[in-house]
Amino acid sequence: RSVYDGEEHGRFMEKLEARIRNHDREIEKMCNFHYQGFVDSITELLKVRGEAQKLKNQVTDTNRKLQNEGKELILAMEELRQCRLQQRNISATVDKLTLCLPVLEMYSKLREQMKSKRHYPALKTLEHLEHTFLPQVSHYRFCKVMLENIPRLRQDIRELSMSDLKDFLESIRKHSDRIGETAMKQAQQQRNLDNIVSQQPRISGGRKSKKEFSASSELEVKNTSPMSEQDSGILDVEDEDEEEEVPGAQDLVDFSPVYRCLHIYSVLGARETFESYYRKQRRKQARLVLQPPSNMHETLDGYRKYFNQIVGFFVVEDHILHTTQGLVNRAYIDELWEMALSKTIAALRTHSSYCSDPSLVLDLKNLIVLFADTLQGYGFPVNQLFDMLLEIQDQYSETLLKKWAGVFRNILDSDNYSPIPVSNEEVYRKIVGQFPFQDAELEKQPFPKKFPFSEFVPKVYSQIKEFIYACLKFSEDLHLSSTEVDDMIRKSTNLLLTRTLSNCLQNVIKRKNVGLTELVQIIINTTHLEKSCKFLEEFITNITNVLPETVHTTKLYGTTTFKDARHAAEEEIYTNLNQKIDQFLQLADYDWMALEPGSRASDYLVDLIGFLRSTFAVFTHLPGQVDVHSTMSGKVAQTACMSACKHLSTSLLQLLLEAEVRQLTLGALHQFNLDVEECEQFARSGPVPGFQGDTLQLAFIDLRQV
């Protein structure tokens, strides 16, 4: 810096040049000093070059020899390298195949399961294949094809399982009748067993109730895995502890298709779809089952088949309810049962109304009770069915009344209206056994003798008792109290007496050509039937165990019925007598202008008086007049005689005073007087005993005065 900053640049260059020259001289001195050594070195180097050439030639020869010798080794090494490469490839292939073979085996197993219709295991295999095996080898093309096929296989399994379900639904639709029949047989056996047990001393630790047994069997069923491939035997557990008398209702159906399909849809995440489809199809089947055939009312088998199908349907649903988790629930079952109950009751009301045979109605009632008891055993409310049975009871009573109307008509039409003759003690006791009749005087009389009544009395009395038994049969198993049964029987019996029997008696009394003797016998018969009403009261009390003094007990109106019939017969007697008198009076032919009277009363009047005498003589000598005030020989005979005399007197007076008779002679009056005297003589003769003084003659007093 000082050189460049000062002005001594030239001087510095000079000094530097001088320095360089000094160094050059020193270098030259040094080279001169070592030159010999340099020459020696070159000489040595030339020698080395010759030796190096020799060495090169030796190395070249050696290399040539080595190359010749190493060719085989190189070939061997190449073969070894190729072998090692193949070995690595084989090892890698084995490893890959080890991963691929389980996939292929699982896929083969899947196809085999699909072919053998083991859909649920196939679905589980598909799940393992998709989530466990295929992810390890997903880069292979065949695996990609498998992955693409998995959704289609799932859909195939879904469709096939649904097809199995449809087959199952069709099967249970066909077998509902048999299932219901079996269930109702079991209920009948249970009821018979309960009846036997109730009649024997109670034994502790008795047989389980149906419901308890059902619950225990259902628990056993639940413990059976529905996922096993052999779940078709799911119901066999129930038979182990039961007798072999009647197979279990569920033993007739293999429920495994339902369980499999349910689990398949659950795994596929479509459980709600399955539940909806199942319930929809079963609702449709329920509507078909509840549609009664048009001719169901014609035979009991028609009703039985109808009930069997309904019971079979609900037994299946109850089993499904207790063996699946939520496929059906209690609300769904209750809804179906409400619909079934309303439709069944409507169908029964309609079809039972066509039935006119009381035996068929009674059999129908027993079938309905068994139907109700069967479903009640499965937990279904059946009170409405028993309420409807009370309605059918009214119809049953009507059919009984129609039947008994025919029975009574036949009895009354075939009766001879003559006292029953008995020739020996056996016949006497037989009739007394049929009809409660006691008469000390008749007991003392020797054989042969006669009962005061005709054959229709014991026959009618026996038929009334048969009617009561028929009513009692209907009340069995209706869960009615004794009071209700008693009230039902008494009301029906009252209808029989006041309507059916009363109409039959009235028809007999009112029919044409009925004789006076028959009418008198009817009066005697109804008198004895009236007295028997208290025995009918006792009969009903004995079979129902309800005392007549019980509050609200219905009384029998038989007394009124027989009194009305008797009064009608009496009126018919009076009317018939008056008609006979009118017929005789039509023969009267008075000559009001006659100059001289005849020597005796008119022929028609003599004949009329003779008819009246014979008629009242027959009445007076009829057997069985125990109470003179209550039989034809007493008050009725007197009333009839008084009525006949009054009618005769009035008719004769009308003949005398009729408008066409404008004038008459004394001779005609004398002839008329003879006829009146004949009538007065008849009255004085006492044709019927029991009149006091001239009571009967007073009937002619107005005529006498005129």
TrEMBL record:
User: Can you quote a single GO CC term?
Assistant: exocyst
Q: Where is this region: Disordered?
A: 186-233
| Ranges of residues in domain Exocyst complex subunit EXOC6/Sec15 C-terminal | 384-706
Q: What is this protein called?
A: EXC6B protein
Membership in a protein family? Belongs to the SEC15 family.
Q: Which organism is it from?
A: Dicaeum eximium
InterPro entries in UniProt: EXOC6/Sec15, EXOC6/Sec15_C, EXOC6/Sec15_C_dom1, EXOC6_Sec15_N, EXOC6PINT-1/Sec15/Tip20_C_dom2
The protein's UniProt keywords, in alphabetical order, are:
Coiled coil, Exocytosis, Transport
Extent of Polar residues compositional bias:
186-202, 214-231
Q: Does the keyword Acyltransferase apply?
A: no
- According to the UniProt entry, the coiled-coil residues are 13-83
Domain Exocyst complex component EXOC6/Sec15 N-terminal: start-end pairs: 15-184
List GO BP terms, alphabetically. Golgi to plasma membrane transport; intracellular protein transport; vesicle tethering involved in exocytosis
Gene3D superfamilies to which the protein is assigned, alphabetical: Dsl1p vesicle tethering complex, Tip20p subunit, domain D, Exocyst complex subunit Sec15 C-terminal domain, N-terminal subdomain
Any Pfam family the entry gives: EXOC6_Sec15_N
